[in-house]
């Protein structure tokens, strides 16, 4: 497989970033330094106005975890969708139950990350979930999610908060 053209890869990058990277092409040292100084200032200004957000891999992973369970377009819109490669997609998270109640649809469970999930099938847990129980939330087929508490058979749930 041929290496991708860096100019093609940069097309989806913000303009101030592309202009900064373009400074590498300036041959004369003083002009290149002036270009870098000018474009770093523009990038810093765009960042301070929140037109550009700079995040490291840890921040992106934290955001992905916080968005886990919401529709994929929301995650992609916010820039945390990652690549289209299946290996980059978050498939499951492990968390702790912080709240449990029964409602008309079934179980409603709150987790330590602040998310709330509501049951959307007719199965039931063998043992009722309790605060402090370990839980695993997994991505299922066709946009569904399952929640398993204390290693029990999972039930289908959807994220409501």
What can you see in these coordinates?
The protein has helices spanning 6-9, 15-22, 29-48, 57-67, 72-77; strands spanning 92-103, 106-111, 116-119, 134-139, 145-149, 155-159. 8% of the residues are buried. The model is unreliable at 73-78 and 81-86 (pLDDT under 50). The protein has 3 domains: 6-48, no CATH class; 57-88, no CATH class; 92-159. The protein contains 5 helices and 6 strands, in the order αααααββββββ. The protein has a 6-stranded antiparallel barrel. By secondary structure, the protein is α+β, with helices and mostly antiparallel strands. The longest helix has 20 residues, at 29-48.
- Measured by DSSP, the beta-strand proportion falls in 15-25%
Low-confidence stretches: 73-78, 81-86
Q: By helix and strand content, what is the structural category?
A: alpha+beta
Shape: rod-shaped
Instruction: Kindly report how far apart the N and C termini lie.
Output: 43 Å
The biggest beta sheet is recorded as:
6 strands, antiparallel, barrel
Strand line-up of the largest beta sheet: 1-2-3-6-5-4
Instruction: Give me the count of strands.
Output: 6
Helical content stands at: 25-40%
- How much is the average pLDDT? 80
**How many distinct helices?**
5
H/E topology pattern: HHHHHEEEEEE
- The radius of gyration over CA amounts to 22 Å
Number of domains: 3
């Amino acid at each position: 497989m041929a290496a991708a053209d860096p100019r093609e890869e940069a097309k989806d990058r913000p303009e101030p970033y592309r202009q900064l990277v373009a400074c590498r092409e300036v041959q004369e040292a003083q002009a290149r330094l002036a270009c870098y100084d000018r474009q770093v200032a523009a990038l810093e200004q765009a960042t301070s106005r929140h037109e550009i957000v700079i995040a490291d891999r840890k921040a992106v992973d934290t955001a992905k975890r916080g968005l886990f369970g919401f529709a994929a377009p929301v995650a992609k819109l916010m820039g945390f969708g990652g690549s289209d490669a299946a290996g980059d997609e978050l498939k499951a998270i492990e968390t702790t139950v912080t709240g449990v109640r029964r409602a008309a649809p079934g179980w409603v469970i709150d987790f330590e990350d602040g998310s709330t999930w509501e049951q959307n099938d007719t199965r039931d847990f063998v043992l009722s979930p309790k605060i402090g129980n370990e839980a695993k939330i997994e991505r299922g087929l066709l946009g569904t999610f399952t929640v398993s508490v204390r290693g029990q058979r999972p039930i289908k749930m959807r994220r409501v908060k």
